[in-house]
Structure formats: C-alpha cells, structure tokens
Write a structure and sequence with these properties.
about 15% strand, globular, about 250 residues, 7 strands, alpha/beta, 8 helices, Rossmann fold, seven-stranded parallel beta sheet
Amino acid sequence: MRLKDRVAIITGAASGIGAATAQLFAENGARVLAVDLPRKGLADAHAQHAGIATLEKSVSDDDAPDAIIGAAISKFGALDILMNNAGVASNARAEDMSQADWDRTMAVNVTAQFRLCQRAIPHLKNSPAGRIINVASVMAEGTDYGLAAYCASKAGVAGLTRTLALELGKFAITANYLEPGAIRTGMTSGLWDARPDVADIWAKKSALRRLGQPIDLARAALFLASDDGGFVTGHGLVVDGGLMLRV
C-alpha cells in the first residue's frame, strides 16, 4: 500500500500505460481519477476497481484543467499526484506536415500537460508528498524520419518538467518524466498486431529482446509517485528495455 490514501489523476487512462498505472495505483491504496476521451471504454476498463473514478474529457478542451482538477477535488477532497499520460502520435516529414497536425500534437502532448500542471499546483502545495509525473518518450532525446512534431513535443515535455522541478522543489513537490521506448500500448498495438515482423524487429533492438508492456511503465510511475521516489526530481526515467543503448 505504497500510496495509501493519496489522490491521483491519470490522463489517457482508458488503455495502455494509463490504464495499467491507474489500476496499480489503486491496488497500492490510492484513490484515482482516470481521465480519457469519450467513447474509449474508460468506465468499462476500470469497472472492477472501486478506488477508481472516471471522467470522460479531452485534455485539450479549453475547460479541461478546471473540469479535471475540479472533478478530483470534488470527488476526493485533495490532490497528491498528477500523471499526464494522454498523448497523440504524428508521422509526417516536416516538409509535408500540415499546420493542423503540428498544432494538434503540441496541444495534446505539451500544452495540455502545462495547463493541467498549472491548475494542479495550488492543490499539490497542500499535499505532504506532491508529485507530477509527465509522460514523454525516448524520442525526447532521439529522432527518426517523420517525427518532427512528435519529437519536438516530447522534448518540450522534458523541458517543462525540469523547470517545474526547479520551481516547485521548495514546496516538497517532485516533478519527473517517463521516457518509454517501444511499448505495446493502445496507441501502438494496432501496428504490432498488424505487422508482427515489425514488432519483432523492435523487440530485437531492445537489450532485453522484447517490447515493453504497460505494466513496465506503471511500475516506474509507482516508484516516482511513492515515498521511494521522494528524493528524485527533474529526472527523465528511461523505461525502454535498453532500446537506446546502441543509438
């Protein structure tokens, strides 16, 4: 029960990393507000977990910060942990990328995280162990063809989080970011399932010779959210099975 009586918000929680983390946090005693888009099966995903409440909301809506933070405070009366996991992928060469694709990637992957953090900070200051966990990617430090918007957004998450760590440390709030590698999530499982040959290639690139699973990231998030991670801040925790060792 490493998170007993703590209150957490987790976005992008209908599947993949977000769902696994919400359930692991609840199993460790947290009360969790799981957030995701409408019609993503959010309620069904967590129907068996009494400690998880759900809210269908896009993190990029204008009223999202007030709606999401307000729902957690209304439901649970406090906030200790904010995990910004919701994100979108994009793949287009910079020369061909539309402004709309660029704007959407930035809006969901960076701006929404900033706005939720900003709205959460006054409540985290009242927590004895305030935690911000933002989900970036190993592409915050690397790149590949077609990933201009995605890499820029994830690098933005890293920069945002490090600055939050510096500014909020005096309030005993930690701010860290996760850097997942090739993970079998709701966003990527379609690719891996449709192209097992591609999945096999990415698995072989990892030092551990497998794709990551959502629980791998959930366990890393639990470390950062718990007292075990209380002296870790401003850190990008790479959870990639050794994928980037040969880059």
